[in-house]
Structure to design on (102 residues):
């Protein structure tokens, strides 16, 4: 599975891995959304440390998860982004909705 979900109290971390593209984004969305629905974390952290490639589907993945957690007052964080992925995220303006943690 390209995502490992780790829960620590009211914080959920989704450790993403491999490529995030049109084909893999759906599987990631389903797994993360299922956990959000069950656990309603105060903070959802998306960890990109093991992501080797990401296209615009990754930006959409973040935006959709933000929409889900913000509906009940949750927040989203992004961490471990390799330089090329962080650049795409910053260019998209993702910092307006998500905290970037280094």
């Amino acid at each position: 599975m390209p995502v490992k979900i780790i829960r620590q109290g009211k914080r959920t971390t989704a450790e993403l891995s491999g490529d995030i593209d049109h084909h893999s984004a759906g599987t990631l969305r389903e797994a993360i959304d299922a956990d959000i629905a069950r656990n309603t974390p105060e903070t959802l952290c998306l960890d990109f440390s093991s992501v080797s490639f990401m296209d615009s589907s990754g930006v959409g993945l973040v935006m959709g998860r933000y929409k889900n957690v913000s509906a009940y007052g949750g927040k989203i964080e992004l961490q471990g982004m390799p330089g090329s992925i962080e650049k795409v995220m910053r260019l998209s303006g993702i910092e307006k909705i998500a905290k970037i943690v280094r």
In short: Strands lie at 3-8, 11-20, 43-54, 75-79, 99-101.
